[in-house]
Amino acid sequence: MSTFAIPTPFQWDPSFDVKSDQINEQHKKLFELINDLAAHKADAGKLKALLDYVLMHFKTEEDLFHAKHWAADKSAAHKAIHDKFVSDAVAATANGVDDGVIAFVKNWLVQHIKGSDMQYAGQI
Ligand code: FEO
């Protein structure tokens, strides 16, 4: 689903503000890591750097859901979206990274921040 436009150039802007400095900084880094991978698609280290950061980021959010006592049903549903992205991303990149993979990851990040992360803005 592509409800929200993909920014060009691909970078964080205030429309992605989820009212948490810590999470905003992590989201900015995700934009940077995706751009870095897009510029070096054959570099397995760039892919690993992105996937490792994604895992760290998801854990940060999920830990905050728990620490801030965010609604358990919303928290569980959000975690399920995270888990699906990880498995989809691993499968999509198993044979390398091409323009289609980059488009998939860019689209996922934008739709996820604006469609899902925004739901916790101001609450975690
Ligand atoms: Fe910022 Fe739910 O990932």
Report the sheet-strand fraction.
under 5%
* Overall pLDDT metric: 96
Gyration radius from CA atoms, angstroms: 14 Å
Low-pLDDT stretches are: none
Topology, number of strands: 0
Distinct bound molecules? MU-OXO-diiron
The class by helix and strand makeup works out as mainly alpha
Order of helices and strands: HHHH
Give the helix level as a range of percent: 55-70%
Give the terminus-to-terminus CA distance. 26 Å
Output the number of helix runs: 4
General shape: globular
Main beta sheet strand tally, sense and closure: none
Task: Characterise this structure.
- The protein has helices at 21-39, 44-67, 72-92, 99-115.
- Helices cover 65% and strands 0% of the residues.
- It is built from 4 helices and no strands.
- It is mainly alpha-helical and 124 residues long.
- Helix 2 (44-67) runs antiparallel to helix 3.
- The mean pLDDT is 96.
- The two termini are 26 Å apart.
- Bound molecules: MU-OXO-diiron.
- MU-OXO-diiron is lined by residues 27, 57-58, 61, 78, 82, 112-113, 116-117.
Secondary structure topology:
Layout: H1 21-39, H2 44-67, H3 72-92, H4 99-115
Helix pairs in contact: 1-2, 1-4, 2-3
Bound molecules: MU-OXO-diiron.
The site of MU-OXO-diiron has 10 residues, from helix 2, helix 3 and helix 4.
Question: TL;DR?
Answer:
With 124 residues, the protein is mainly alpha-helical. It contains four helices and no strands. Helices cover 65% and strands 0% of the residues.
Essential attributes:
124 residues, binds MU-OXO-diiron, mainly alpha, globular
